[in-house]
Structure formats: C-alpha cells, structure tokens
Amino acid sequence: MTGTWKIYLLALVSFLVGTSEYVISGILDQISDTLGISVTSAGQLVTIFSLVYAICTPVLMALTAKVERQKLLVSAMGIFVLANGLSFVLPGYELFVLARVIMALGAGMVVVTALDIAAKIAAPGKQASAIATVVMGFTASLIIGVPLGRILAVEFGWKSVFGFLALAGLLAMFILYTAIPKVKGDEPVPLSKQLAFLKNRKVTLGLAITFFWLGGYSVAYTYILPYLLNVAGLNEELLRVALLAFGIASLVGSKFGGFSTDKWGVFPTLTGGLFLHVVALIFLSIAVSFTDSWLLILGLLILWSFAAWSTGPTQQFNLVQIEPNFSGIMLSLNQSMMQLSMAAGAGIGGIIVNQVSVSSITWFGMIGVILAIIIAFILKSRMSEEKQGAQVKSL
User: Fold this and answer.
1) Which of 244, 241, 242, 217 is nearest to 312 (CA)?
2) Which end of the chain is more exposed for a tag (fewer CB within 10 A), N or C?
3) C-alpha to C-alpha distance for 149 and 316, rounded to whole angstroms
4) CB of 208 closer than 8 Å to CB of 378
5) Cα pseudo-dihedral 243, 215, 114, 188, rounded to 10
6) Which of 260, 228, 220 is nearest to 244 (CA)?
7) Is the residue at 372 inside a domain?
C-alpha cells in the first residue's frame, strides 16, 4: 500500500467519524418517535457530542502527545467502535446520551491523530494536500454519510446506522493496525500555552468569526429535517435528494473557498461567502412560506450549503495567517471552536424550535452569520492598522 492510499484510508476513517456526528440531523424524527422524546431533545444530542468533542479533545491530545500515533489511532478507533456498539444495543435516551459522550471522546482523538499521521507520512511538499484529503473525508460524510444514514434508518431503523458504523469501524481498526506505519508522538504543548493565544485580540476576533459563522449555520442545520418535512413540505424521496444535493454543494463550496482564497485573497472570499450565506437563508425563509416549488427550495438549499462551506478553508487559512509561526495551535483552537459553535447552535436552535417555531430557525441562524461578517470587518480594520503602524516604524 503506497503512502497515498494510506492517506485515503485515513480520510475514510475521518468519514466514519464525520458521519457519526452529522447523521443525527438526518434521522432526528426517527430518534424522537422511537425514544418518545421531543425533536428538540433529540437535537441536543448534537450539542452534547460537539461540546464533549470541543472541551475534551485538546485535553486528551495533550495527555497522549508522546504516545506512538498508530497505537493512539487504533485505540481511539476502539473507543469509537465501542460507543457505536453501545448506541446500537442500549435502550432509552439517557443511555444513548452516555454512548454519544463516549463516541465524542473517541472521535476527537481519531480526527486529530489522523491529521497528524497524514502530515507525517505524506511525501515532502505534499503535507498540506494530505491534510486536505483527510478533511475532505470528514466533509464527505455530509454528502454520503447523512443521506445513506437516512436510507438505513428508514429501511432498518435508526439504530442500524450505529450498528453499521461499529462494524465499519472494527474493520478499519484491523486495516489501520496493518497498513499504517508507526509514527512517533510529539512533545506536548501545554494547554496553558495554547490558551494563552486567546489573549491576542486578533486571534480572539478570528475565532469569533468561526463561532458565529458555524453557530448560525448549526442553528438551522441541526433542525433541517423537521424544517424540510414540516415547513417546506418535502416527502421522503425528495428529502433524500435534498440531503444528497446539500452534501455535494458543501464539497464544491469547500473546494471553491480554497481556490478563491488563493486567487482573490482571504477577506473578499470570507466576506463574500458569509454575505451569500445570509442571502441564501433569507430567500429560503421566504420561499418555504410563499411557494410549493421543491426545485426552488432545492436550489436555495444548494446555494446555502455552497456559501456556508466556502468559508471553511478560508477561515482556517485566515487563522494561520494571523499567527503563521504557530499554525498547528491555531488549527487546533479552530477545531475546538468549530465544535463549540456547533454545540451552541444546536442548543439555541432547540430553544427556538420550542419557544418560537421550526420555520424561524433560518431567520435566527442568519443573525449569527451577520455577526460573523461584522467581526470580519473589525478584524480586517485592526490588521490594516497594525500593518500601517509597522510600516511607519520601519521608516
């Protein structure tokens, strides 16, 4: 097995983890019905997963920094497999919540370790491409994992999704053990040093963009299934098409975001994508209220997904640009912030669905994205001032 195929194997592992996180949004109604809980209670499973992932992953990675990477990856996959197995066999909402907590602990270590191994086994000069490939596996879970999870849930019940993930994860463990070379761990970076970067106002503003962009997205996306079924009026077949189209658009948007950042720069791509994100949510909110055209709704879903995910690679590069000598720490902080924002968005979305209506989630979601735009302009202004100040000092 060549180095390239080993990296694609890591991307496949990332795909399994991404599916375990995102699939909840595609089977929300079935979980609600079979467990006898509200849709909002089911939606909080996203909050719990993301919150545990965000808080515990940096701690666990710091504690296991010196552990050989292949061993750590296989062990983390073991935790992931156990959690999916528990999700499949254990009854009731409370035990499912416990399984999700365990799943998040394993998932966070799997993704970060897979990224680390990919960078270390890649050919010289190909490290960035290797990391992008593993990230693409995570993104592909939106394209394939969520629609496939929906199909499995409809045909065999929603628990079958986690049974399948457990079996696939078990197979992946054996392949990883035989195919991935042993990779030395790193010297640990103390959490205090990582958190010290938050004192830098540019870093704080950069991370705030991630929080409000993805938080606003999560408010709407977590409850996209009841939104499309009950507000937009899509049937089961159209729902599957919509989820697939949404996923494909996310991949295209991500690719375009990277291309646009290289060609036109961070700020135009970032603000342009965020602005288009708001426009898409506005028109989607209006369309579901005044038209029955599923083609129009599908087109607006595609536009929303494209715009939302075009921000992903741009924002990562934006944070690396802020502290270029500490890119690893910046990306790690951004990963945690992404999960925190997903947790917050899902939590806020649940309150909105309970207290207002499902149909209003897109309106509230766009508020977060608008705040991200405002913060992007503040960050741009601050960086311009610092650049001008540095030029004046050099004269």
Assistant:
1) 217
2) C
3) 29
4) no
5) -170
6) 228
7) yes
